[in-house]
Amino acid sequence: MSDLPLIQTDRAVPPPAATTSTGGRRRRLRLLSRTDRVVITLMVLVPLLLVTGFVWMPAVATVLLSGTNWDGIGPLNEIEFVGARNYSDVVNIYPPFVPAVQHNLLWLAVLFLVASPFGMFLAVLLDKELRGSRFYQTALYLPVVLSLALIGFVWQLLYSRDQGLINAVFGSNVDWYGDSNVNIWAVMVASGWRHVGYIMLLYLAGLKGVDPSLREAAAVDGASESRAFFRVVFPVMRPINIIVLVVTVIESLRAFDLVWVVNKGRNGLELISALVTQNVVGEASRIGFGSALATIMLVVSLVFITIYLATVMRENRQ
Amino acid sequence: MRFFAQKGLASDISDVWGKLSGYSDAFKKASTGDDGKQYFVPATYYPWAVFYRKSVWQQHGYQQPKTLDDLTALAAQMKKDGLTPIAFADKDGWPAMGTFDILNLRINGYQFHVDLMAGKESWTSDKVKKVFDTWAGLLPLHQPDSLGRTWQEAAQSLQQKKSGMYLLGLFVGQQFSNEEQSDLDFFTFPEIDPAIGAKALDAPIDGYMMARKPKNEDSARKLLEYFGGKAAADITVKNDPATLVANSGADVSGYTALQKKAAELVGSATEIAQFLDRDTRPDFASTVIIPALQQFIKNPKDIGGLTSSIENQKKSIFTD
What we know:
CATH superfamily of the domain at 107-259 in chain A: MetI-like
Oligomer: heterodimer
Strand content of chain A: under 5%
Radius of gyration of chain B: 20 Å
Structural class of chain B: alpha/beta
Largest interface: A-B, 34 and 32 residues
Shape of chain A: globular
Distance between the termini of chain B: 17 Å
């Protein structure tokens, strides 16, 4: 969650003069001592190897394995290729797939339309530095610090049909985790509770960096609070807005821990990530089939990543 | 066990079996792979049966049912008396397999059940549909909203005298305190088809296997021989009152009344199944059957759609 670019601060060092740009850089490299060159090479090479080994190679392996029906057992040269059969199975005869896609989209919609705006709203409120804002900040951010497995357990104490707090206090009999019409919403409340704090803190940090003279100018011009925010502050916060958008999309694609802790992603809590884990990890060991699901997830993520990169690169060119 | 043995992941330990004594033929059969060799040394086992609290039944004057009609009538009576007739939980997905297994064993017999698990019979056959039909008829007598309930919570409802009975393994006793253990009793699921009777049951066996190429094979075989002997069995008996020891040579004088009865039940059973997720391929059981049974519990009306979905997925998995 931290490999996103921070806000571009003003460059303190001016870029080299245009005519001697490449010559200047090469001249500067030659000025570096041998130790510096070794250190720089290592600093590039080691992360590169780690990323290749732990991210790119498994990704490529997953895509290749999705064309097999390997079950994880036996030598690699005995793996049988079955072409696109796993993909047609996923789409045609695998009942949890369609609900999983729907739930992932629902998760994205709820996070994007409800949780993130609410987090931004809380950040705007806290930015006013009212009395007790430090307390509220801590209280709202606390769920972010808790691991999602712990959150799942805590909410289980609330949501259990027979022994949970909600049903005990309200005298209701709702099967929060077992009724597939209700449980996705119950889990999204638990997940949103955490997401709101996270977005709030990101946005608050960004708000602190907004030039106060802009706000003063807006106040002098007689703008109301909300107009001042939407017309003045919000456009200036564009980099932060993009970060919030990216984080929201990532969190919705990544959603996994909570549903896994509740019931391993079944019965109304299907998510593509949970389906991948169900199939690949543990006794199921349907590596080929699970890899097909994982590849589908990769392709969906690539769509969003492409949009993001295109937007950022277009901005950098401007 | 047979799945892993057939994949070549376990070693043939028939020679160890030659030195073991105290195992009935049923256990030897359960330890034998598809090629006729032994791959498994049993250690403990426990039966699945319908459990109830003696005090509750005595209070209401209930009798153990001998046929399915008796069971239905008993459950109706329990409902009138304010109890939930049959406790039920399937949040984890596997407990419902116990109900499917026993209904299939009673309605279609042991051989059909074993063949269905091995992928040799079709899930769309009328025999399987009959199992689901019978289950759909019994579902109203089960605890509602089972998909959000864990088996521990369902067993606690039995312990709290809110439910009349619960089909589960012997480990249901773990949810009862020490003083309440003597209040627990059980009966095997009643017969449905008089021609088939009520002798078959699920009794998962836990034990030891040897990897295909262990580093120290001789010592491994000696260890397995020890595990299959009386000394190890005696230690196992003392450890867990919710399970039974497989070696009949063990000293079982410390068994509770419940354990003795359970041992008799399995001892007199002619046909023992292991439980659905051990009798069939594990990938089929966990990725297909669990969601399918949960779907059935949610919507017991669409049996045709459910069984054809299971059959299609089964065909894509049982290819080798």
